[in-house]
Amino acid sequence: MFGLGTILTIVIIFVVLFLLFGGLRTSIFFQVHTQENVIVERFSKFLRVAGPGLNVKAPFIDALTKPISLRVQQLEVNIETKTKDNVFVTIPVAVQYVVDQHAVVDAYYKLSDPEDQIRSYVFDTVRSALSGLTLDTAFESKDDIANTVEQRLSQSMAEYGFRIVNTLVTDISPDQRVRDSMNAINAAQRERDAAQSLAQADKIKRVTQAEAEAESKRLQGEGVAAQRKAIASGIAEQYEMLRAAGIEGTAEQLLLMTQYFDTLQDVARNGRSNVLLLPSNPGALGDLSNEIRTSLLTSYESEQARRDGDARAQQEASRQRAADERAAAHEARQEAAYQAQSAQQRPQPAAAPTQPAPPHTRPAPAQYELPESAQQFTGRLPQRLQDQVNQFLQQRPPQV
After folding, report:
1. How far apart are CA 157 and CA 118, in angstroms?
2. What is the pLDDT of residue 332?
3. How far is CA 48 from CA 56, 66, 69, 281, 350, in A?
4. Which residues contact 122 (CB under 8 A, 6 or more apart)?
5. The CA-based dihedral angle spanning residues 97, 103, 105, 106, taken in that order and rounded to the nearest 10 degrees
6. 102 secondary structure, DSSP code
7. Cβ(68)–Cβ(155) under 8 Å?
8. d(CA 268, CA 385)
9. Which ranges in 131-175 belong to alpha helices (H)?
């Protein structure tokens, strides 16, 4: 049978196998996954950082921390804040960050809750940025807000072992009533733009159509003018031919008859024509010609009579004005004579004895002055009549 030494050897082998494949195995060997790190502590003190793969630690004295992921992680933060124009908005911000592989120790020991710390920085940065922006400006500055948050987080979190990969401001959501108002404003603006575009298009259409119509009418006018010129030339040639043939007296009637039949031919060619020729009897064309000639002569005589009547009316008005002026002058002279005679018949105060005049002097002519009422009357007359009245008074002989 087995000796004592053999039995002891077998027991020792079983103990070693039990320790290797039992609890001692997990106390000595451990594995770390890819994109992860594990911190090994000895007596609760940092010892080293274990990388991916199979690692060994001292049993009973070394301890392992929770695996630290080196993958890119995303933190979503919903921030409710107020803009410069007092509009409350909700801004969802997504922060993508990763633990720096060379600063795993700082990332694990310096921050107890990295996500909460990042969230605090995002809140502070976004609220300070939106406080100086209006709602419309905030919509236009989403990228600027994201860059500001990313720069501040990168500077602040670098010393804690974290690296900010990207920061995204995904949306700016105002209150529902504000959104409804903004939608109404946008709808009104788009309707206004659409109305302006339609009006501009209609204007261009109308202008183009008017230009086309004007060009068409111009060309039609040129065509009609050329046609009438050709017709007039043809009529003149026909008239000369008729005169040369010795039928000058009936040339007009013959040409009128020819034009009449040409018109009937045009009317018959167009079945939908609504032209009615009066008179319809060709024999009445002579009467029609006489009526046209009589109408022209009557119109000329009426115009001449009107001009003669206007000339006679102007002459009569001139004669009436001259008669009125003569009557006013005669009345003024009579009034002046009457006023002068009344002034001479008034009693004169006793005059002082006159001194004999020197033999070589002549007495001055007597001056007549009108009373105040006569002067007021003559002052309203034309200047020519006033001069005639004064001349009449100076030519009167002195009254003794």
Report:
1. 8
2. 81
3. 12, 14, 16, 131, 158
4. 77, 79, 93, 95, 149, 153
5. -70
6. G
7. no
8. 80
9. 135-140, 142-157
The per-residue pLDDT for 13 is: 80
CB atoms within 10 A of CB 396: 12
Tell me the whole-structure pTM to 2 decimals: 0.43
Q: Walk along the chain (400 residues) in steps of 10 and give the mean pLDDT of each run.
A: 71 70 68 92 91 88 90 91 87 91 90 87 88 85 88 88 90 80 84 91 90 88 83 76 66 63 67 58 58 68 82 87 84 79 62 47 49 56 63 54
- Three-state DSSP at 368 gives coil
Query: Treating both helix axes as pointing N-terminal to C-terminal, what angle do 251-269 and 176-244 enclose, rounded to 10 degrees?
Result: 140
What SS3 class is residue 215?
Answer: helix
Structure-block tokens of residue 116: 């909460």
CA angle 258, 259, 263 (to 5 degrees): 120
Q: Are 99 and 69 in contact (CB under 8 A)?
A: yes
Query: What DSSP line would sit under 229-291, residue for residue?
Result: HHHHHHHHHHHHHHHHTT--TTHHHHHHHHHHHHHHHHHHH-TT-----SS--GGGHHHHHHH
Cα–Cα distance measured from residue 392 to residue 370, given in angstroms and rounded to the nearest whole number: 12
Which tokens belong to 262?
């040409």
